[in-house]
Automatic annotation (TrEMBL):
SUPFAM superfamilies per UniProt: N-terminal nucleophile aminohydrolases (Ntn hydrolases)
Organism field: Aeromicrobium wangtongii
EC number: 2.3.2.2
InterPro entries linked to this entry: GGT_bact, GGT_ssub_C, Ntn_hydrolases_N
Domain of life, source organism: Bacteria
Keywords: Acyltransferase, Hydrolase, Transferase, Zymogen
Protein name as catalogued: Gamma-glutamyltransferase
Length: 507
């Protein structure tokens, strides 16, 4: 049983990670258990109808790997279009969202979790799922992040579907402050514990989800769910000082942006962030996020164009500079393993699939991630993603896991926290707490430099864990395991130490 450090979006998720770690689980087991709980209690941000990525630093020191469980375009054999409508909300500074059954993409996060568990997990799959079952059965209260989002979208997004409306509203139509028990959700999780991800792709849950979506005018069919496969890829690597970081490779755009910004920061800040460092950071964001808007969001070959951009950065830094909703869990363990998990269901389609208790995603309706339009990709194609779960390995054997929610602020939040920690010499929590800058609409005529004054969840919600090697482990070595959560959200951390021989004798 290794020591495990866990950073999660809420207390219940952190408790789940701790429970699994105390049962003998490693960082992968703990992170997956915590993330599954968020699929129950982070309403509006993530659900079982989600997509995500898992980046793992294997404990044996091998190269990091990323499991791609992101969304596919559905619609095999169907006429595309219809089943949607657009709304505008002032969430996140103003965003246009497409909702309805036609906005539901092919989910993949649970399939990716199962693949990661098969490769690197150490406790039975049912133990990974059990904490989420328990939360769904006994009920939960909305987190601060959920309540904040629902405050903007509870009627427009979650008010049109009868089950969805009833689950989060009191009798007077206000967002509930009480405990929420979503009918059928615990039973759905029981099926996933027993049958694995097959329940969501070829089993009873898959049938209920696809039947309900098609009946209501959407395009997610049984074939789309059955044909889905998670993909395991070598992580995209970047070296910063004595650290090697692995992050999400194409077809996600998030990891490419993180890698590019880390390289362009060129060792800044060298100590506390100063005005010159912030100016440089803005130039870096302008170069990378501007290139994303110009090239990556419309390319027909992201692997090719991402490789060319990173090669240009490596050749000539200065030449480059002059030219919705997610949750994240991080975990590391004393064996040297690290796991970073980021998952999302978009802004939510607004509907619960009949007989499942599962809120369905609207990832086809995230307009900023679908530059070719609502149904503009061939069925089976992976959608774009900002996600960038990242792990790091130091020459001294240290292991780090880090990531963030926050739509297009994911990459800028991660980079600023990493730069403060690796380059600036800040402690992990101090680096995460530091105020951030985000360049909105980079390189456009309406570009805005947004500088954080008071801590705001708009600027992300970074969580990170760190393991430093040392001469001993157990309760007396707490300084070797670090977990840090972002004060911008309801983050929670846990440090789980294996018993020492002396303490084990006392049990």
């Amino acid at each position: 049983m290794p020591d495990v450090a866990i950073a999660a979006p809420n207390e219940a998720a952190a408790d789940a990670g701790e429970q699994v770690a105390r049962a003998g689980g490693n960082s992968v087991d703990a992170a997956l258990a915590a993330a599954l709980v968020t699929m129950v209690n982070e309403v509006g941000l993530v659900s079982l109808s989600s997509g995500g990525f898992i980046t793992v630093q294997p404990a044996d020191g091998g190269p990091p790997q990323t499991v791609d469980g992101w969304m596919d375009m559905p619609g095999r054999g169907r006429a595309l279009g219809g089943g949607t409508w657009d709304i505008t909300t002032d969430y996140g500074g103003g965003v246009d969202i497409t909702v309805g059954p036609g906005s539901v993409a092919t989910h993949g996060s649970v399939a990716a979790f199962e693949e990661a568990h098969r490769r690197w997990g150490s406790v039975p799959w049912r133990e990974i799922v059990q904490p989420a079952i328990d939360i769904a059965r006994r009920g939960f209260r909305l987190s601060t992040a959920s309540r904040y989002y629902l405050g903007h979208a509870h009627l427009e997004v979650f008010g049109w579907d009868e089950q969805s409306h009833a689950a989060i509203h009191d009798a007077d139509g206000t967002i509930t402050t009480g405990s929420i028990v979503v009918p059928d959700l615990a039973a759905s999780l029981d099926l996933i514990a027993a049958d694995g991800s097959a329940a969501l792709h070829t089993g009873e849950l898959a049938r209920r989800i696809s039947d309900d979506v098609i009946r209501r005018g959407g395009i997610l069919g049984a074939e789309d769910l059955a044909d889905y496969r998670p993909v395991v890829r070598p992580s995209l690597l970047s070296t910063v000082g004595e650290w090697t970081f692995g992050t999400n490779p194409p077809p996600s755009v998030g990891g490419v942006c993180v890698a590019a910004m880390l390289r362009l920061l060129d060792g800044r800040p060298r100590g506390e962030w100063d005005a010159a460092d912030v100016d440089h950071l803005v130039r870096v964001q302008r170069a990378v996020l501007g290139h994303r808007l110009d090239v990556f969001d419309s390319t027909d070959d992201l692997v090719r164009d991402a490789g060319a951009f990173l090669a240009l950065i490596d050749r000539d830094h200065l030449a480059v500079l002059e030219s919705g909703s997610t949750v994240h869990v991080s975990a590391t363990d004393s064996d040297g393993g690290a796991c970073a998990v980021t998952v999302s269901c978009g802004y939510g389609s607004g509907m619960i699939a009949e007989g499942t208790g599962i809120w369905l995603n609207n990832c086809l309706g995230e307009q900023e991630l679908n530059p070719r339009g609502l149904h503009g990709l061939p069925p089976g194609t992976r959608l774009l993603s900002n996600m960038a779960p990242t792990v790091g390995h130091h020459v001294d054997g240290s292991a780090l896991a880090i990531g963030s929610p926050g739509a297009d602020r994911i990459t800028t939040a991660i980079v600023q926290a990493l730069a403060g920690f690796v380059n600036g010499g800040l402690g992990l929590q101090q680096a995460i707490d530091h105020r951030r800058v985000h360049l909105h609409r980079a390189g456009r005529s309406d570009e805005v430099i947004k500088t954080e004054t008071d801590l705001s969840m708009y600027y992300g919600g970074v969580s990170a864990t760190l393991r430093r090697p040392g001469p001993s482990t157990g309760p007396g070595s707490g300084e070797l395991m670090v977990a840090a959560a972002d004060p911008r959200r309801d983050g929670a951390v846990r440090l789980v130490h294996r018993p020492t021989p002396a303490s084990a004798d006392l049990v």
